[in-house]
């Protein structure tokens, strides 16, 4: 499965009452597809998945699949720290028309590496969809190490990993010891270019909501051999990439979208809006 190089970890738009807003979702999808996104990852961390019910996730997926209409791959975040619940949600995502699923490392439970292997392999057996693993120890506490990812890559439909450990040695080992058709994506915007230099395929991006064309140009320049231009774009984007995580994500990127004229509403508790000062700082950063 070719997921593309710039995948956007899409925010979930809400209305004034905090409910999923499908009209705003349509506008957001069109904005992303017109601005460099080659794939959409929904109901993940940036999509506020911990606050979405299973029914909301499925309704959002069905709407996204219909709106996208096969223009780009749609990957559904169906992982959790409950293996059985993840199996059920993954099977529902397949029935709803997802092109792939993303499975996050179980959080809070703190499983060991064998537990991680059994968790992911059990879910993968329940679907024919391509599976993207999602390693993010900053949120899940447990790091899925290179050996476990390499072992999981031998399962036919485990085809990719979103690597957000920040450990470039681990990334190198994964790329070196997995098959050429196993894809590796940066899970952090700010290390996309360093990971590309190691052989990664792209990024599952937050910054692409507002700088998608720039991200697309950076990856394209690197892949065509123009490393200097890619590095220049990276340096230009780095303050924005950092600014979008200056407060808990996705609060800044939702605010940035609104500033840019794409209304996606607010966030659900326990996340809270930016203060006036934080919003003004973000506005100045975007304008600069």
Automatic annotation (TrEMBL):
A single MF term (Gene Ontology): 4-hydroxy-tetrahydrodipicolinate synthase activity
Per the UniProt entry, the Enzyme Commission number(s) are 4.3.3.7
* Active-site residues annotated for this sequence: 134 (proton donor/acceptor), 162 (schiff-base intermediate with substrate)
Identify the NCBIfam families for this entry: dapA
Listed PROSITE patterns? DHDPS_1, DHDPS_2
| Source organism, top-level taxon | Bacteria
**Which CDD domains is this protein grouped with?**
DHDPS (cd00950)
Enzyme class (EC, first level): lyase
Q: What keywords were assigned to this record?
A: Amino-acid biosynthesis, Cytoplasm, Diaminopimelate biosynthesis, Lyase, Lysine biosynthesis, Schiff base
SMART domains the record matches: DHDPS
Q: Name one Pfam family in it.
A: DHDPS
Catalysed reactions, as listed in the record? L-aspartate 4-semialdehyde + pyruvate = (2S,4S)-4-hydroxy-2,3,4,5-tetrahydrodipicolinate + H2O + H(+)
InterPro entries linked: Aldolase_TIM (IPR013785), DapA (IPR005263), DapA-like (IPR002220), Schiff_base-form_aldolases_AS (IPR020625), Schiff_base-form_aldolases_CS (IPR020624)
| The species this protein was found in | Lentibacillus salinarum
Q: Primary place of residence?
A: cytoplasm
> What residues does the record give for site: Part of a proton relay during catalysis?
45, 108
Tell me the protein's name: 4-hydroxy-tetrahydrodipicolinate synthase
Instruction: Name the family the entry cites.
Output: Belongs to the DapA family.
Q: How does it assemble?
A: Homotetramer; dimer of dimers.
Give residues annotated as binding pyruvate: 46, 204
Q: What does this protein do?
A: Catalyzes the condensation of (S)-aspartate-beta-semialdehyde [(S)-ASA] and pyruvate to 4-hydroxy-tetrahydrodipicolinate (HTPA).
- Where does the record say this protein resides? Cytoplasm
Annotated pathway:
Amino-acid biosynthesis; L-lysine biosynthesis via DAP pathway; (S)-tetrahydrodipicolinate from L-aspartate: step 3/4
């Amino acid at each position: 499965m070719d997921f593309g190089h710039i995948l956007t970890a899409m925010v979930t738009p809400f209305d004034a009452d905090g409910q999923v807003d499908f009209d705003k979702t349509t506008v957001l999808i069109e904005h992303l597809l017109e601005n460099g996104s080659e794939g959409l990852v929904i109901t993940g961390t940036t999509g506020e998945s911990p606050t979405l019910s299973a029914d909301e996730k499925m309704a959002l997926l069905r709407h996204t699949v219909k709106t996208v209409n096969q223009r780009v791959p749609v990957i559904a975040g169906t992982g959790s720290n409950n293996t059985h619940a993840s199996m059920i949600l993954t099977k529902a995502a397949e029935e709803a028309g997802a092109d792939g699923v993303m499975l996050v490392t179980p959080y809070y439970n703190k499983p060991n590496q064998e537990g991680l292997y059994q968790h992911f392999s059990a879910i993968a057996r329940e679907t024919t969809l391509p599976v993207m693993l999602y390693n993010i120890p900053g949120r899940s506490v447990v790091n899925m190490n290179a050996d476990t990812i390499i072992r999981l890559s031998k399962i036919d439909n485990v085809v990719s990993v979103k690597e957000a450990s920040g450990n470039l040695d681990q990334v190198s080992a994964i790329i070196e010891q997995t098959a050429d058709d196993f894809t590796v994506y940066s899970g952090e915007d700010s290390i996309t270019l360093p990971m590309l230099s190691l052989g990664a395929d792209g990024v599952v991006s937050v910054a692409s909501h507002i700088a998608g064309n720039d991200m697309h140009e950076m990856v394209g320049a690197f892949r065509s051999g123009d490393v200097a231009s890619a590095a220049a774009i990276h340096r230009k984007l780095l303050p924005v990439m950092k600014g979008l995580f200056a407060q808990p994500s996705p609060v800044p990127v939702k605010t940035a979208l609104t500033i840019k004229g794409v209304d996606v509403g607010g966030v659900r508790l326990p996340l809270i809006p930016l203060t006036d000062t934080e919003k003004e700082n973000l506005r100045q950063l975007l304008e600069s």
